[in-house]
Each structure stands twice: as structure tokens, then as C-alpha cells.
Amino acid sequence: MTVWTDLTGLEFSVSSVDVDGIPTRSLRAGSGPPLVFLHGTSGHLDGFSRNIAAHAEHFTVHAIDMLGHGYTGKPDRPYTIPAYVEHLLGYLDACGVDRAHLAGQSLGGWVAAWAAAEHPDRVRSLSLLAPGGTVAKPEVMDQIRTSTLAAVENSDPIGTRRRIEWLMADPETSVTDELVAIRHAIYQQPEMKQNVGNILVLQDMDVRTQNLMTEERLGRIQAPTLVVWTAEDPTSTIAEGHFWADSIPGARFEMIEDAGHWPHYEQPERFNALHLEFLRSTLD
């Protein structure tokens, strides 16, 4: 399977959207209520290639490279959670979207949840796919920092492969040469090498602590919420997933087996069916 295979037969466009002076890479497809996919730390929109076509049958899908990531602009300032949220809302404004369904994985889930708590009028529903942001674990933070730096600073794609393999339950099957090549090209951009520290600022204990999703902030989320967790996530525990779901009023908790930190990518058929059923329930 390749990204092009995933998107075969689908009408879509990839463009750069001006978000307050920041060129923002965006893939758009389908029609219907707007749905925005948000990736994880040092990720990019291509990670949702296995989900876009199924969702585009019912929604206008927006998959974006977040602030400082992928082929989106990389201003030289720390990328804190409020900065990501400001960029996300600016993207919605630039596209003329008042309210959107948000589906965020890892860092993307953290950003989406913060947006839902602080700007409830902009979020129609919230889907959190192995989200980060409720705890600060030094060993995980160090792994993210060191593996990302090794991949970005090394011209050999082996570091990029190791960075992605760490996230998967079955790396031999899930980590394709194409996925490695796409991310390695992103990592080799001069702007990425210069600003990777701004991406990794959330792995600094003081900064991370100031940006955590607290129980109080989670309790302010009003949007219908789906929390998707896995049993083989190297970054977190099942207890953390239940904390998310228990802290958000009315949230639904679902487990996806045989997946690591990318449940939507490793188990796309299971995730797509589950997610679309949830989204349809929010439209009733």
C-alpha cells in the first residue's frame, strides 16, 4: 500500500493556505460538514492517508501540516499548545469555517482538546487518538527528543525509520519505505533543521507542565468526545486513556487492538468504521 493507492479515485487538492502570514499545507477532499485531522509531534498530514477517502464520503476533510511541521511555515518561536491552537483557528478562519469536527492524534489530540476547552464555539465534535498532554514522563519526553533530533540531524534515513518504528505495534508491516521517504524529506528541509527545537519545546519539563491538559480544563470540554486508545502504545498507559475519558463530560472510550501510537494508520478499517459511526451520532 502507498499513499497514492490510499487516495486512488478520490478527488482532492493539496494547497498552501495563508494563515496570518504562515503558509500552511492542506489536503482537502469530499463535501459535507468540515472535519480537520491533526497529526502528532514532528508528523505531517500524510499519516492520515488511510483515513481520508472513507471520511470524504461524508465530510469535507481537511488534513493539515500543523504550525512548524511538514511543509507548513516554521516561524522562529516556541510552538506551545496555545500557539498551535491559534494557528488552527487561523486556518479555520482562512477557510471560512466557523465550527469543525476535530480529530487529533498524539500532539494533535492535545491541540484539539485545548481548542475545545478554550473555544467551544469552534468545535462540533472532538476525536482524540492516543492523545498526549495530561502527564509529563521524563523517559518518554527524552525518547521523543533524542529520536527526533537524531532523525532530523542525520542525512541517513535510518534515523527517520527508527523514529517511526518506535510508534508502531507492528513496524515491519506498518512502516513502509514510502512513509520513511516522505518524513525524511521533511526532516531534511533547512527550515526544519533550524526550528526543530521549537517543535521539541514541549519536551522541556517546565514548558510541558505549563501546557498540560488538567482535569479542570478537560472538564470544560462541551463537544461530544471520542477517546481512542490502544494496548500497545509506547508513550502511555491505558490508565491515562481512561483519565481522558473520565475527565471529559460524556466522553466515549474505545480500545483498538494490535496498534501502537497510530491506531488510525495501523488499523484503518477498524478506526474508520468506529470514527464514522461516532461522527454520524453527533449529527443527529
UniProtKB/TrEMBL annotation:
Q: Where is the AB hydrolase-1 domain?
A: 35-273
Q: What is this protein called?
A: 2-hydroxy-6-oxonona-2,4-dienedioate hydrolase
The UniProt entry's GO CC annotations, sorted and at most eight, read: membrane
Q: Does the keyword Hydrolase apply?
A: yes
Q: What is a single molecular function from GO for this protein?
A: hydrolase activity
- The lineage's top-level taxon is Bacteria
InterPro entries, A to Z: AB_hydrolase_1, AB_hydrolase_fold, AB_hydrolase_sf, Epox_hydrolase-like
